[in-house]
C-alpha cells in the first residue's frame, strides 16, 4: 500500500489522471495526493480507533499497559467501548448522509403533489403505483396525485418514531427478518436509529461494545432498507427508471469547443434541472453567441452516475478525478449538491476560470458561488447556473487547456427493472444461469477511491479477477467510472470474462460489469438479493454473493458495508475502518458476525487474494445449495 509518492504511476493507473497530476504540478494546483503525503503517517491512536472526544473530561486515548491490560479513559471507558462508540458514530454519519438525501426526494415529491415544483413531474407512473402498493397505499381508482400524496406520508413516517418497522420491510425475506427479530435490530425509524446511536454513544450510556455494534447494524439497516431505498425509488419515480444506454467516460468527455459544466455530488434534484437547462435551445443559442459550439454536461461521482443511468450523460471521472477535471482548464463550472465534494475544489477552481457553484444550504463552501436551490424556482435557477457557466467561457484561457485522452465507450443504466426486462420479465433465466454455473456468483462492487491505494488499481483489478471466474459484477458509485475506463462496461468487455459469463453476456448483449447506479442504489442490490433468495426459498446468506469496496473511504461506504453484512451479504474491504485497537470489535467484524448474521467482513488489501477468498466462499455456498461448478 505504501508507495513512492514521487512516481506519478503510483498515484493512478490512468493516463488521464497521471497527465493531469503532472499538469497540476506545473500549474501550481495542490492535489489530494500532495495532501495525503503531508498527512502521512497518520496518528496511531486514531488509526486504531482508540481516541475519544465524546466529552470534556477528555479527550482520552487508550494504549496497552505493560501488563497487557488496557488503559481506561477518564470516565472509565475501555478500548472496546471507545472503538465501538467511534464506529457507531461513523455508521450513523453515513446513514444520515444517504437518508437525508432520501428525505430530500420525498420533499420534492410532496412539492410536485402540491403543485409547488412545476419543473418536476412524476415521470414513471407505473413505478409510483407499484411502490405505493408495496407499502400498503391503496391505488385502485385513485389519481396519481392522490397516491403520491399518501406515499409521501408513509415515507415521511419512516423517518419518525411511531413505527415498529420501515415501509420496505416487506422486501426482506422472512428468514432474514426472523434473524433481525431475534437480535432486535429490525429498523424502526431512520432518524430514530441515528439519533439513538448518538444517544447511546454519549458518556455513560451504551458501555458494552457488542450492544453498540448491534445498534450499528440497526442504524445501517435503516439506511439500506430505508433512507437509501427511498432515495432510489423516488428518484426513479420522479426522473425515470434507468434503462441501458450508451455513453462515454474519462476526462476526454470534456470538449474543448464547448461550454463544459460538470455536475458533482449525489442527488439528481439539482443536476437534472441543470441538464434540462443546458438542453434548452435558448441557452444553446447563448453559448453559441459566446463563441462555443454548445453546452456539454459531464458527470462526476454519484450525481454523475444518477444522470448517466437515466439520461446517458458522459462521465468525466470519479472521486480522485474531481480536482484533475478542473486541471484540464476547460471546465467552466462545477455544480455541486452534497457529499464527497472535496473542499479543495474551491482552490483548484480558483486557479482557472472555473466557477465553483454550490446549491445546497446543507453544503456551503467558503469561497464558492452559492445558489440556494429552491425546487419551486428550479428551472429559473438552473438557467442562472448555465448562464454563469456561459459567461465563464468568455474568460477561459485556451492556451492552458489540455484534454489528455479520447473518451471510451460505456453502457450504463441497469436497474432491477431493466434487468427483469432483459430477462423477459422473470428472474428465472438468471436463476438458471446461476444454477448451471454459467454465472457462478454475483458481486456488487461499491465505489470510492482512496489515495491509500494507487487510484482505481484495486477497483479494476478486483472486477477483472471476478469476471474471469464467471462472477457477474454489479457496480455502483465511483467504481463505475473505473470499470468503464477499463472497457468492462461494454458487451465487448465480456472477452475478459470466463466462458460461462461470456456466453450469458453474448446472449443478452450486456457487459460483464453492470452499471447499477450511484451509492444509494445499493438498495437495488439488496432488493435483488432478497428477490433471488425468495425465489430459491433460502436466506440471503445462503446465496453465492458478495459486496466489496476495495478503495472505500467514506462513512457512507461503511454504512453500506454494515447493512450488506446485516442483510447476509459478506463484504470485502481493502482497508480496515478505525477499529483495530479493539480485538473484540475486530474479531466480531471479521468473524463473529458470521454466527449472528451469516456474513462478515473480509479485510484484504490485495485484490488477487481477495478474489481468491471470495471465490472460495462462493464455491462453498454453491455446494451447500446443491449447485455444481
Ligand atoms: Fe463518494 Fe458516491 Fe464513494 Fe464515490 S463511491 S467516493 S461515497 S461518490 Ni459511493
Ligand atoms: Fe474520555 Fe470517557 Fe470523555 Fe471519552 S467519554 S473523552 S473516554 S472521559
Helices and strands in order, then pairings?
Blueprint: H1 15-27, H2 32-39, H3 44-48, E1 51-52, E2 60-61, H4 79-113, H5 125-134, H6 144-157, H7 174-183, H8 190-200, H9 209-239, E3 245-249, E4 259-264, H10 268-278, H11 281-289, E5 295-300, H12 301-311, E6 315-317, H13 322-327, E7 333-336, H14 345-350, E8 355-358, E9 369-370, H15 378-393, E10 408-412, H16 416-422, H17 428-435, E11 441-446, H18 457-468, E12 471-476, H19 479-485, H20 499-508, E13 513-515, H21 522-536, E14 545-549, H22 555-566, E15 571-573, H23 583-597, E16 601-603, H24 607-624
Parallel strand pairs: 4-5, 4-7, 5-6, 7-8, 8-9, 11-12, 11-14, 12-13, 14-15, 15-16
Antiparallel strand pairs: 1-2, 3-10
Helix pairs in contact: 4-6, 4-8, 4-9, 4-22, 5-6, 5-9, 8-9, 9-21, 9-22, 10-15, 18-24
The structure holds FE(4)-NI(1)-S(4) cluster and iron/sulfur cluster.
What's the quick description here?
By secondary structure, the protein is α/β, with parallel strands linked by helices. Helices cover 48% and strands 10% of the residues.
Give short descriptive properties of this protein.
Rossmann fold; 3 domains; Substrate Binding Domain Of Dnak, Chain:A, Domain 2; alpha/beta; 629 residues; binds iron/sulfur cluster; single chain; six-stranded parallel beta sheet
Distance between the termini: 34 Å
Count all strands and give the number: 16
Sheet/helix structural class? alpha/beta
How many domains? Answer: 3
Radius of gyration: 24 Å
The count of helical stretches stands at: 24
Largest sheet: 6 strands, parallel
Mean of all residue-level pLDDT scores: 97
Strand content: 5-15%
Q: What CATH architecture of the largest domain do you see? A: 3-Layer(aba) Sandwich
Q: How helical, in percent, are the residues?
A: 40-55%
Strands of the biggest beta sheet: in what spatial order?
6-5-4-7-8-9
Amino acid at each position: 500500500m505504501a508507495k513512492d509518492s514521487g512516481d506519478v504511476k503510483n498515484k493512478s493507473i490512468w493516463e488521464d489522471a497521471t497527465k493531469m497530476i503532472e499538469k497540476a504540478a506545473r500549474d501550481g494546483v495542490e492535489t489530494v495526493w500532495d495532501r495525503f503525503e503531508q498527512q502521512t503517517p497518520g496518528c496511531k491512536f486514531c488509526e486504531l480507533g482508540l481516541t475519544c472526544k465524546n466529552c470534556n473530561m477528555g479527550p482520552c486515548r487508550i494504549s496497552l499497559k505493560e501488563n497487557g491490560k488496557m488503559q481506561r479513559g477518564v470516565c472509565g471507558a475501555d478500548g472496546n467501548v471507545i472503538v465501538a462508540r467511534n464506529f457507531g458514530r461513523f455508521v450513523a454519519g453515513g446513514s444520515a448522509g444517504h437518508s437525508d438525501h432520501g428525505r430530500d426526494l420525498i420533499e420534492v415529491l410532496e412539492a410536485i403533489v402540491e403543485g409547488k415544483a412545476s419543473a418536476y413531474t412524476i415521470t414513471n407512473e407505473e413505478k409510483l403505483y407499484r411502490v405505493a402498493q408495496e407499502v400498503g397505499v391503496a391505488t385502485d381508482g385513485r389519481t396519481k396525485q392522490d397516491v403520491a400524496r399518501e406515499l409521501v406520508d408513509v415515507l415521511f413516517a419512516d423517518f419518525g418514531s411511531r413505527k415498529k418497522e420501515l415501509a420496505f420491510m416487506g422486501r426482506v425475506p422472512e428468514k432474514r427478518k426472523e434473524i433481525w427479530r431475534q437480535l432486535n435490530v429490525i429498523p424502526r425509524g431512520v432518524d430514530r436509529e441515528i439519533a439513538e446511536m448518538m444517544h447511546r454513544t454519549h458518556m455513560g450510556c451504551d458501555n458494552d461494545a457488542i450492544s453498540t455494534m448491534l445498534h450499528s447494524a440497526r442504524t445501517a439497516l435503516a439506511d439500506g432498507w430505508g433512507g437509501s431505498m427511498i432515495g432510489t425509488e423516488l428518484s426513479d419515480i420522479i426522473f425515470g427508471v434507468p434503462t441501458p444506454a450508451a455513453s462515454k467516460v474519462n476526462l476526454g468527455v470534456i470538449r474543448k469547443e464547448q461550454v463544459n459544466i460538470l455536475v458533482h455530488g449525489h442527488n439528481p434534484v439539482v443536476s437534472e434541472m441543470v441538464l434540462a437547462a443546458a438542453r434548452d435551445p435558448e441557452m444553446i443559442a447563448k453559448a453559441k453567441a459566446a463563441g462555443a459550439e454548445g453546452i456539454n454536461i459531464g458527470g462526476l461521482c454519484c450525481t454523475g452516475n444518477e444522470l448517466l443511468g437515466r439520461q446517458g450523460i458522459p462521465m468525466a471521472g470519479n472521486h480522485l478525478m474531481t480536482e484533475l477535471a478542473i486541471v484540464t482548464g476547460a471546465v467552466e463550472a462545477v455544480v455541486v449538491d452534497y457529499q464527497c465534494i472535496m473542499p479543495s475544489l474551491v482552490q483548484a477552481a480558483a486557479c482557472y476560470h472555473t466557477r465553483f457553484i454550490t446549491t445546497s444550504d446543507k453544503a456551503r463552501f467558503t469561497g464558492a458561488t452559492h445558489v440556494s436551490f429552491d425546487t419551486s424556482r428550479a428551472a429559473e435557477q438552473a438557467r442562472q447556473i448555465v448562464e454563469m457557466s456561459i459567461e465563464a467561457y468568455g474568460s477561459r484561457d485556451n492556451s492552458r487547456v489540455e484534454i489528455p485522452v479520447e473518451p471510451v465507450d460505456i453502457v450504463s443504466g441497469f436497474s432491477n427493472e431493466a434487468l427483469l426486462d432483459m430477462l423477459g420479465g422473470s428472474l428465472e433465466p438468471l436463476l438458471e444461469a446461476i444454477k448451471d454455473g454459467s454465472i457462478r456468483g454475483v458481486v456488487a462492487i461499491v465505489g470510492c477511491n482512496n489515495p491509500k491505494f494507487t487510484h482505481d488499481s484495486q477497483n479494476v483489478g478486483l472486477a477483472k479477477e471476478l469476471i474471469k471466474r464467471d462472477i457477474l459484477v454489479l457496480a455502483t458509485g465511483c467504481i463505475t467510472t473505473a470499470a468503464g475506463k477499463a472497457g468492462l462496461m461494454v458487451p465487448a468487455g465480456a472477452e475478459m470474462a470466463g466462458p460461462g459469463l461470456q456466453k450469458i453476456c453474448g446472449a443478452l448483449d450486456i457487459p460483464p460489469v453492470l452499471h447499477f447506479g450511484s451509492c444509494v442504489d445499493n438498495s437495488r442490490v439488496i432488493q435483488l438479493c432478497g428477490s433471488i433468495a425468495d425465489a430459491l426459498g433460502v436466506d440471503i446468506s445462503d446465496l453465492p454473493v458478495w459486496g466489496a469496496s476495495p478503495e472505500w473511504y467514506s462513512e457512507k461506504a461503511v454504512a453500506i458495508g454494515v447493512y450488506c453484512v446485516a442483510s447476509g451479504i459478506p463484504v470485502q474491504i481493502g482497508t480496515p475502518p478505525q477499529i483495530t485497537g479493539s480485538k473484540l470489535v475486530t474479531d466480531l467484524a471479521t468473524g463473529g458476525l458470521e454466527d449472528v448474521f451469516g456474513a462478515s467482513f473480509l479485510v484484504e488489501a490485495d485484490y488477487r487474494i481477495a478474489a481468491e477468498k471470495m471465490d472460495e466462499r462462493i464455491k462453498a455456498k454453491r455446494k451447500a445449495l446443491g449447485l455444481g461448478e
